[in-house]
Amino acid sequence: MGLLVCVGGIVLVLAAALVMIFNRLVVLKNRVDNAWAQIDVQLKRRADLIPNLVESVKGYMKHEKGVLEEVTKARTALMQAGTVEEKAKANNMLAGTLKTLFAVAENYPQLKASENFKMLQEELAGTENKIAYARTAYNDSVLEYNQTIQVIPYNLFAGMFGHAQKQYFGVTEAERQNVKVQF
Amino acid sequence: MATNPMPDRGNGQRVSFFDAIDANKRNSLLLIAFLTFLVFLAISAFALMFDMGWLGFAMGAVIAILYALFSYYIGDRALLALSGAKPVSREANPYLYNLVEGLAIAAQIPAPKLYMMEDASLNAFATGRDPQHSAIVVTRGLAEKMNRAELEGVVAHEMSHIGNYDIRYMLITVVMVGLIGFMGEIILRSLFFGGGNRKGGGGMLMLLGLVLAILTPIIAMLVKLAVSREREYLADATAVKLTRYPDGLRNALIKIRDHYQPTKAATDTTASLYFADPIGKKLTGLFATHPPIEERIKLLEKF
């Protein structure tokens, strides 16, 4: 009888521990998914702004067809990207082409004075900032998730419960240097 | 009185964000119960002075509960109205709007509503009962005189107050303590100017009323002072975690110190809500509503 109670108690404690491990992993995974959704929303927003931008710029920048085509191409790549890595890469490409576009726009005073263009520029800059913040939040939650499924006791059950390492949303070397601001 | 959820400044930064949220929710509940009781006492004291007897207690209970509900559900709107802040639309200020939305993403909370006070001083505050019902208010001076990094630092600080439910705690404190202080004043004045005790009897009740009238505002004031200072350090630390750029917030604080001017719409009651002391009485120690700005600047250097 005493043995039975003992065994029963141990089983109960183990079951409780298992439930806690399971729930903790689910919570962390949901945090990653939620943070990813935030990035995705902003990437989509960015892609949605591009056609307007191209449209409003086209009239002024007749001799810069190549730049506009690059932007459109990068946008298409972003729309078609599936995995985290692909999206990160496409997003970086789009950021690069947009930078070129805005740099070239400096040569067109009329364009720079256009209210519509200024609005789009602010919206795109704002979206870029949001992507940066969303990426930080995402990478933080990935770090916590990846770390957790590697440590005892979580690593013993992570595979069984269908958890695997998540990918970081990468930062390229070029983007890192971007942070410098000059006045 | 378990009203101060934050440990002292020495280890304040080691408190995790989630601990702070739990502590704030729990303490908000305790505080609302305690302050409801104080409002009940204050109203009862008022009623006793006019010899209303037991009816006074019933009235006190009903009004206290109604006022507690008012504080929790629409107190934030009352505070916004008091400050004279007006909503900012995306069209009117896309720059500020995007900045707030970006930091909301960093804090992983829904974007708070954005308001602006027409005031040249450099200040801001946040209010609401939870992240889903919250607002950030900045002064026009802040929006115009701060650069992007500094503005992000200040907004991130306010975003931290929202994310960890400081706003709920502060909302209840400010709105309820405000009423208690106001009633205490009325009671004391009516005593000095010969009000009350018109029938000449009920000496014991009068005395009780007097004691309550003096005690409640003092207790309420102590509650308010106990809550507002330490959480500023935690919000500064969390702001750095959100922006990853301590110099932004630090430069903002330096700018506020060097170009200081009071925020006109702030009162003694609402002062503790603000990012920087809006009144500038230079009180230190127990009666200061804000930690010294030098101390905050110094702590940010350590990141």
Task: Detail the topology: elements first, then pairings.
The complex is a heterodimer of chains A (183) and B (303).
Chain A: H1 2-58, H2 65-80, H3 84-105, H4 109-113, H5 115-148, H6 154-158, H7 173-177
Helix pairs in contact in A: 1-2, 1-5, 2-3
Chain B: H1 9-12, H2 17-49, H3 54-83, E1 86-87, H4 94-107, E2 113-117, E3 124-130, E4 133-139, H5 140-145, H6 148-163, H7 166-192, H8 203-228, H9 230-243, H10 246-258, H11 293-301
Question: Quick summary of this structure?
Answer:
The complex is a heterodimer of chains A (183) and B (303). Chain A is mainly α. Chain A contains seven helices and no strands.
Written description of the protein model:
The complex is a heterodimer of chains A (183) and B (303). By secondary structure, chain A is mostly helical. Chain A has one domain: LemA-like domain (de novo design (two linked rop proteins), Up-down Bundle), CATH 1.20.1440.20. Helices cover 79% and strands 0% of the residues of chain A. The radius of gyration of chain A is 24 Å and the shape is rod-shaped. Chain B has 303 residues and is α+β, with helices and mostly antiparallel strands. Chain B folds into 2 domains: 13-75 and 168-216, no CATH class; 83-166 and 230-301, 2-Layer Sandwich (Zincin-like). Chain B contains 11 helices and 4 strands, in the order αααβαβββααααααα. Chain B has helices at 9-12, 17-49, 54-83, 94-107, 140-145, 148-163, 166-192, 203-228, 230-243, 246-258, 293-301; strands at residues 86-87, 113-117, 124-130, 133-139. In chain B, a hairpin with a 2-residue loop joins strand 3 (124-130) and strand 4 (133-139). In chain B, helix 3 (54-83) crosses helix 7, helix 6 (148-163) crosses helix 10 and helix 10 (246-258) runs antiparallel to helix 11 (293-301). At the A-B interface, helix 1 and helix 5 of A face helix 4 of B.
